Amino acid sequence: MTGLALEAINVSKRFGDLQALDRVSLKLKKGGIHALLGENGAGKSTLVKCIVGFYTPDEGEVLLGEHQQLISNPRDAHDLGIGMVYQHFTLVPNMTVLENLVLARPRLPSIIDWNKERMAIAERMKGMPFQLPLDAPVNHLAAGEKQKLEIIKQLLLDVKVLILDEPTSVLTPDEADEVLGQIKDMARRTGLAVLMITHKFREVVLYADDVTVLRRGRYVGSERVGDVSVEKMSEMMVGREFSGTALAREPAADQGVKLAIDALTIEDDSGLPAVSNLSLTVKGGEIVGIAGVSGNGQRELVEALAGQRPTTGGEIRVMGERYRGERQELLRHRFHCLPEEPLRNASVSRMSVAENLGFRCFDRPPHSIGGFLRRRAINAYAQRLIAEFKVSPANTAIPIGNLSGGNVQRAILARELWDQPNVLVVANPCFGLDFTAVAEIHARLMAARNAGAAVLLISEDLDEIIELADRIDVISDGRLVYETTPQAADPIVIGHHMAGHAGEPHAH
Ligand SMILES: Nc1ncnc2c1ncn2[C@@H]1O[C@H](COP(=O)(O)OP(=O)(O)OP(=O)(O)O)[C@@H](O)[C@H]1O
Ligand SMILES: [Mg+2]
Fold it and tell me: Is 20 in the pocket of ligand 1 (CB under 6 A)?
């Protein structure tokens, strides 16, 4: 099935002084996957939000299909069959999968016959690329399952154009292959046109048919994926050749154990065990990596370490002292923590960048004297951080929620990596970052380690763990089930343990 599914012509969008999009055009064909590449803040999300009518372009237009129907608001986009999966989840956490699917429909009867809905959806599920338990509450789903649900939610609305904003950021490589492979099949089969924003070249090469690159709000070019190398794509993205930052792993001076977790038990929101009898130690000058598929207790572990979730057994010691997760302890021990989904879990979207960056220190001089917040000091501090971490735009007054996804991540990383932490806990630190930023953050994590921090790196990205960690643990079902070193690490063996299979895999 060929033909044009959608066309964006000379679309421009300005936010205040910032020209987020400057006459960008894009052609989307039926029956394939089109990748949209660009650095953090390049305008990718803004472009797709213009396409779905979430934003009205200042100039240019978006036309759908052979009949060139004009899309000018979300209702049009919806009625004409354009669906979008946003960079951040939009599910209702306290409802079940079924409820989320039914309530996503624009027109609902005033009384919903849930039995009928359940049967209809169960039937249609069979034709979907992946299956989900209809009665599971969404807050019990792992990140990967939530992402699948977001996609199914759109597909059940019979969309002709599916837009995915970084769909695989929350997926493991296996899950990403499954999701993208299935979606590509579906596109081929049904003529569905898919526009996918991603930072992963691997996915572009393996799954996309065409690629368009944006840089600083401008259109750089479109290519057939088969005709263009990864080097060429990265050059188009950043406008120059990229020479990566080499990681300098220095021999660790033994600084003693800075973080000790002993027989820790943590419950999830419904009182079921999320983490069971987990013990580990991290010395100063060492990165311990915890690999695992999301939803195996990582989130609860990080929340407990950040003092945002009670523990039900065991203990945590920081710098040799019993630790209860109180704010004063975090400050006193220089215990820094980056949870997953920082926009939701580590920042207040409507507050300014400066206020968000000041969280860690706003009640200490020079930022606070006699209980008064010293705005100017907070601002100067925030300015330094965002310059250092190249947060763009470099404006501390705007709400942090207005930053692009990757820039929110950079801003929160700036806050947590600053000020020489003793203990640094990071969960999926490079989520949503472009490749230059990934290299930079990896270098910074290594630098924190070399400077003596005890770093606990919790990540779903196995390559990242193997690259950075001094020791590797695998978490499965809330337990550490396997330990190895990066030198001895075999991704297949680790993957096997991540998937919850006890013991060594059988040799073939
Ligand atoms: N609602 C808004 N108000 C003000 N500025 C905005 C708004 N939305 C986006 N911007 C700005 O527009 C620019 C483009 O942002 P956009 O979210 O499109 O980037 P992106 O390419 O999706 O980046 P990322 O890879 O980090 O997600 C950024 O500089 C961002 O700060
Ligand atoms: Mg974005």
Answer: yes
- What's the CA gap between 442 and 168, in Å, rounded? 20
Are the C-beta atoms of 46 and 53 separated by less than 8 Å?
no
Are the C-beta atoms of residues 484 and 315 closer than 8 Å to each other?
no
- For the chain, residues classed under CATH 3.40.50.300 are 4-238, 257-343+419-498
Identify the nearest ligand to the CA of 391 by its number.
1
The CATH T-level fold of domain 257-343+419-498 is Rossmann fold (3.40.50)
What sign does the CA torsion over 133, 167, 293, 344 have? negative
Per-10-residue mean pLDDT of the chain, 508 residues long, equals 86 94 96 96 94 93 84 85 86 92 87 93 90 91 86 93 87 82 94 95 96 96 96 90 70 86 94 95 97 89 93 96 90 88 78 84 53 73 91 91 88 87 94 87 92 95 92 95 94 82 50
Task: Choose which residue among 11, 12, 13, 15 to substitute to test ligand 1 binding: the one with the highest number of ligand atoms within 8 A of its C-beta.
Answer: 15
Whole-model pTM?
Answer: 0.81
38 CA distance to ligand 2 centroid (A)?
Answer: 9
CA angle (270, 276, 279) in 5-degree steps: 140
Return the CATH number of the domain spanning residue range 4-238.
Answer: 3.40.50.300
Distance 48 CA to ligand 2 centre (A): 9
- Residue 213 Cβ inside 6 Å of ligand 1? The answer reads no
Q: Does the Cβ of 408 fall within 6 Å of ligand 1?
A: no
